[in-house]
Amino acid sequence: MSVSRRARAVRVLGVVSASAALALGTAGNALACDISEFSAEAKCDGDKGVITVTDVDPAGIPATVTVYLQNNGADAKKVGEQVVKGSREGTTITFADDWKPNAQYRIHVKAAQYVDEDIKPNLVTPATACKKEEEPPASTPPATPTPSASPSQPAEETGTPAPEPSESQSTSPAANAPAPAGDSNLAETGADSNTGIIAGIAAALVVVGGGAVFFGMRRRGANSDS
């Protein structure tokens, strides 16, 4: 083989080797970890909220995933950090966080020299919380107690003023007291005011009658002696 042919062969072999290396490099870059191979989701585990991150990198390059709770566009809290090795079927890691409805989370992925960025857009949780608020029982009006019969109380104790006595009841007890039996007729006829005069006249008549009888007897005795 001449020198020219040998040089030509070496040149062709170099071109083929370079092409193969370029192809392998391109294939390696195609199989390398990429941010598009990561996805996040907010789910419920019973009554508790969780955040899951899935890596579908077929090369299985280890990647560090960090989750941050956002507040007004800034990191308010670091929820957690885990390492994941992806697979063609997908590898999922879980971060326990009892998220609130419509909350935002920033999820950052770092994998060697391949990935160092956030999953876009930020994760927004559902509008409904995992644990449903228990509705308070309907309030029922309290039963009205039935008033029990109670003995009547005097007017002074209950505060109710006693009724005023009527005109017929306001007379003094002396007027309603029964009069003595002997004076009942006089009280009824109104003649008790003339009793003294009648008694005086009767006494005078008795005295006059007695005097007349006395003088009559003396006169009769004198006639009999003569």
Walk me through this protein's architecture.
With 226 residues, the chain is an alpha+beta fold. The protein has a domain at 35-125: Immunoglobulin-like (Sandwich). 33% of the residues lie in helices and 26% in strands. The chain has helices at residues 3-31, 155-158, 173-176, 184-189, 195-225; strands at 38-45, 48-55, 62-71, 74-85, 91-96, 104-111, 115-118, 123-124. The strands form two sheets. Strands 3, 4, 6, 7 and 8 form a five-stranded antiparallel sheet that branches. It has a three-stranded antiparallel sheet with strand order 1-2-5, with no helix packed on it. It starts with a helix and ends with a helix. This is LPXTG cell wall anchor domain-containing protein. Residues 1-32 form the signal peptide. The chain crosses the membrane at residues 197-217. Residues 146-181 have a biased composition (Low complexity).
Secondary-structure map:
Layout: H1 3-31, E1 38-45, E2 48-55, E3 62-71, E4 74-85, E5 91-96, E6 104-111, E7 115-118, E8 123-124, H2 155-158, H3 173-176, H4 184-189, H5 195-225
Antiparallel strand pairs: 1-2, 2-5, 3-4, 3-6, 6-7, 6-8
Protein name: LPXTG cell wall anchor domain-containing protein
Keywords: Membrane, Signal, Transmembrane, Transmembrane helix
Organism: Streptomyces hawaiiensis
List keywords for this structure.
alpha+beta; 5-stranded antiparallel beta sheet; 3-stranded antiparallel beta sheet; 33% helix; rod-shaped
